[in-house]
């Protein structure tokens, strides 16, 4: 029987099948092959006790996407939640996260929340920058449930993960999507789980047929050091079309003269503030690489 792993706590996996949910363990052979089943994996199971709904995982199907921290497979979309105000928008974090989504090959959605608190409507400029690049940007006021229906539409037929700094309103948004207080029920991203590796539980919650939200403790702090500094520009998707105008092969797009990307910044084809954040992230990655040696 085939199914989807929707929850993992320690060595127990909840697998959703057409015949209901089974509590499963994994065959020892996976450990030998250094493979561990993770939430989001499509698996094949053998039932050991139909009455008690117990089974064993026999096979893990090939993963389209795999994220190391937190361990999660086959997500198709990441929703990056940014606060328009209180806390102020962290666009450096957003650009790191967008680069990561491009790197792992997952669709990215940007949610600008708390738009009601932004009296100067600075969120409009942020929306313009990222919409121009080609990202879907949704404006929300989670407390008033504004933008929730639009967000629900883009979640459809995806395994979605939500990411964002604390205080940006992820919980309120998720409660709005489920139309009940799931975060207070302790179902999604309990604060006291953060940093406690021993009981880190990841779970998929079904919103609709074939539509899930992944509860991912610690997802906001994921590390992008898997990306090499020299490759970072590939994951700033508006840079690609200008690379061919660089004079030097292997241009880092940082210090070189006659750089196609820098020229595009100077004539306003690439947003200057986003390019500056690219440079910051580049130097951060470079410093980590140098520390390794």
Q: Would you give an account of this structure?
A:
By secondary structure, the protein is an alpha/beta fold. It contains 7 helices and 13 strands. The chain has helices spanning 28-32, 91-104, 123-133, 148-155, 170-178, 260-266, 272-292, and strands at residues 2-9, 12-17, 20-26, 42-49, 54-60, 66-67, 72-73, 77-83, 107-113, 136-139, 159-163, 202-208, 211-215. A 5-stranded mixed barrel has the order 1-2-3-5-4. Strands 6-7 form a two-stranded antiparallel ribbon. α2 crosses α7 (272-292).
Distance between the termini: 48 Å
Q: Major beta sheet, specifics? A: 5 strands, mixed, barrel
Strand content: 25-35%
Enumerate the strands of the largest sheet in spatial order, edge to edge or round the barrel: 1-2-3-5-4
> DSSP helix count?
7
Write the layout of secondary structure elements.
Elements lengths: L1 E8 L2 E6 L2 E7 L1 H5 L9 E8 L4 E7 L5 E2 L4 E2 L3 E7 L7 H14 L2 E7 L9 H11 L2 E4 L8 H8 L3 E5 L6 H9 L23 E7 L2 E5 L44 H7 L5 H21 L1
Parallel strand pairs: 3-5, 8-9, 8-11, 9-10, 11-13
Antiparallel strand pairs: 1-2, 1-4, 1-12, 2-3, 4-5, 6-7, 12-13
Helix pairs in contact: 2-7
